[in-house]
Design brief:
The complex is a heterodimer of chains A (275) and B (260). With 275 residues, chain A is α/β, with parallel strands linked by helices. Chain A is 38% helix and 23% strand. Chain A contains eleven helices and ten strands. In chain A, the strands form two sheets. Chain A has a six-stranded mixed sheet, with helices on both faces. In chain A, strands 2-1-4-5 form a four-stranded antiparallel sheet. The longest helix of chain A has 17 residues. Chain B has ten helices and no strands. Chain B is mainly α. Helices cover 87% and strands 0% of the residues of chain B. Classes of the chains: A alpha/beta (275), B mainly alpha (260). Chains A and B meet through helix 3 and helix 4 of A and helix 6 of B.
Chain lengths: 275, 260
């Protein structure tokens, strides 16, 4: 609380967060801030727990130590009803889209509205069509999720995530497995939604190029620690070897190409010995 | 030896933790009833998919079980010249035992495995998680209606099974083997007791419905969210349901008919 001016700008504050899964430490004492109204990216190699971080922020997982504040509320101190009220103001886009497979596109987008509001059906229709129009898929309202391409499913999920006009959206790997055109559409959508709806966005990704294009601020996570943070420009000019390897995608560097093993020659001549 | 103890200990703790998780899950499911009450549509849809879709398998199986009972009963009873009591024998076996038990076993195979697979896939494709993040409790929205549906459908299906079975027995007994039609029905009417036979049979099927649906939903909800995990969970549902049904049937029968 020492710098209260800075506190006010941040929608999410993560303080000294540690989290383990079994023996494995996923996060070790990390601290980061998500500024209100900005697009903040959290990047790092696969398996560094980026998705876990989103689940921690959403209160689906509980940290071993440390705290997470969202809009001034300590997520893990909230009672169940309060947590659910907070979640209504947070949209989340899952990697798979997580559309409900037994409903068509329209009902999927209408789902949060029907669950949380008592709006008349005519108004729900108007709202759903507006949200679908925003992601460019108003014409796909009658399709079932299994008829959608991966990119369309993600856009529908995005329409659903903004259905309740949240203050923040968390994107879990939004660019993974997309063709260049739907990738472009998503990049454009994330940026424009953030500006037009006055949202705060958190993007978890390892797609360097796309993420750098839209992020205002970037945190790089590896091995449970924050290894670098700053604006895209600062990250690009970072002196850290690790950051440079990640950004340029070099096969060898601080992160070795070879999984730890014994000497290659010794390994090859050690025939006849059974393991 | 140490290794054996180690495995024994691990298995025991694992099964008790699972039982604990299962009980907590059941508790949450039951508290969800309050939220499902004002939304009967959710329940009706599930009664349809759990109950009505099991209709055909129940009717066909019931018919054949009744016909076999008619045949076997006739062969044994005619040795004693008691083929007139065939109606009683068929009805008593069906209402007391075969109706609830076979229906529950078929239900576990048809509806239980489908429930596990459905819930498991919803978990694997992050649908449950997504619902949680939309501030919708998946237990209340998804699990509770299905649980109630299984609970409601099972006694109805068991009653249907028994009714069709009695007709199957009659078809074989009076139509094929020449038992007197009047005797078939009157023996049944005179000797089947409403409380001892029918109510007890219904109680059994309610208990089986409760347990089978609980197992099916919990296995789905507790599944390892991969395709392999879902297929394992589905198998476990059928196996565990069968064990529970047969074990509980013994206990219930001993309690209900023990003092005769």
């Amino acid at each position: 609380m020492e710098n209260s001016v800075k506190q006010q700008d941040n929608l999410v504050g993560v303080r000294k967060l540690s989290f383990s899964r079994g023996e494995k430490k996923i996060f070790d004492d990390i601290t980061l801030d998500i500024e209100r109204g900005k697009v903040t990216a959290i990047m790092g190699p696969s398996g560094t727990g980026k998705t876990t971080l989103l689940r921690l922020i959403g209160g689906q997982l509980t940290p071993a130590s440390g705290s997470i504040h969202v809009d001034g509320q300590n997520v893990h101190r909230l009672r169940r009803a309060e947590l659910y009220n907070l979640r209504k103001r947070i949209g989340m886009l899952f990697q798979s889209g997580a559309l409900l497979t037994d409903m068509n596109v329209f009902d999927n987008v209408a789902f949060p509205l029907r669950e949380h509001t008592r709006l008349p059906e005519s108004m729900i229709r108007t709202l759903v069509l507006m949200k679908l129009h925003a992601v460019g898929l108003r014409g796909a309202r009658d399709l079932m999720p299994n008829e959608l391409s991966g990119g369309m499913a993600r856009r529908i999920a995005l329409a659903r995530a903004i259905a309740l006009d949240p203050m923040m959206i968390m994107y879990d790997e939004p660019f993974t497995g997309q063709d260049p055109i739907s990738m472009g559409a998503l990049v454009h959508l994330i940026k424009s939604l953030n500006t037009t709806l006055g949202l705060t966005s958190i993007i978890v990704s390892h797609d360097v190029h796309e993420t750098m294009a839209i992020a205002d601020y970037i945190y790089l996570i590896s091995g449970g620690k924050i290894v670098g943070h700053g604006s895209p420009e600062e990250i690009r000019q970072s002196p850290s070897d690790w950051v440079q390897q990640f950004m340029t995608g070099a096969a060898d560097g601080p992160v070795h190409f070879h999984y730890p093993a014994k000497d290659y020659f010794d390994d090859l001549v050690a025939t006849g010995k059974r393991y | 030896m140490i290794k054996f103890l180690n495995i024994l200990g691990k298995t025991t703790t694992a099964s008790f933790t699972k039982l604990g998780r299962g009980s907590y899950f059941l508790l949450e499911t039951l508290t969800g009833i309050i939220d499902v009450m004002p939304r009967p549509r959710l329940l009706i849809n599930q009664v349809y998919s759990v109950g009505v879709l099991s209709f055909l398998i129940i009717v066909i199986s019931g018919l054949f079980v009744g016909m076999v009972l008619g045949l076997q009963g006739y062969y044994i009873l005619s040795d004693f010249g008691a083929e007139e009591t065939l109606g009683l024998m068929v009805a008593a076996s069906l209402v007391r035992e075969l109706g609830p038990v076979v229906t529950a076993l078929l239900f576990a195979g048809r509806a239980g495995s489908a429930l596990t697979a459905e819930i498991g896939l919803m978990k694997a494709t992050e649908q449950l998680s997504g619902m949680e993040m939309m501030a919708v409790d998946p237990i209340k929205r998804i699990i509770t209606p299905r649980f109630l549906a299984g609970f409601i459908a099972m006694p109805l299906l068991a009653a249907l099974f028994s009714a069709v079975g009695i007709i199957g027995g009659q078809m074989v007994g009076t139509g094929l083997l020449g038992v007197d039609d009047g005797a078939y029905w009157s023996q049944m009417r005179a000797n089947i007791d409403f409380h001892d036979d029918i109510v007890n049979g219904v109680i059994k099927s309610i208990v089986f419905g409760f347990v089978t649906t609980w197992i099916a939903l919990f296995e789905g909800y507790d599944t390892v969210p991969t395709s392999e995990g879902v297929s394992r969970a589905t198998t476990r549902t059928v196996v565990n349901s069968a064990f529970s049904i047969l074990g509980l049937d013994f206990i219930l029968t001993a309690m209900m008919f023990g003092d005769h």
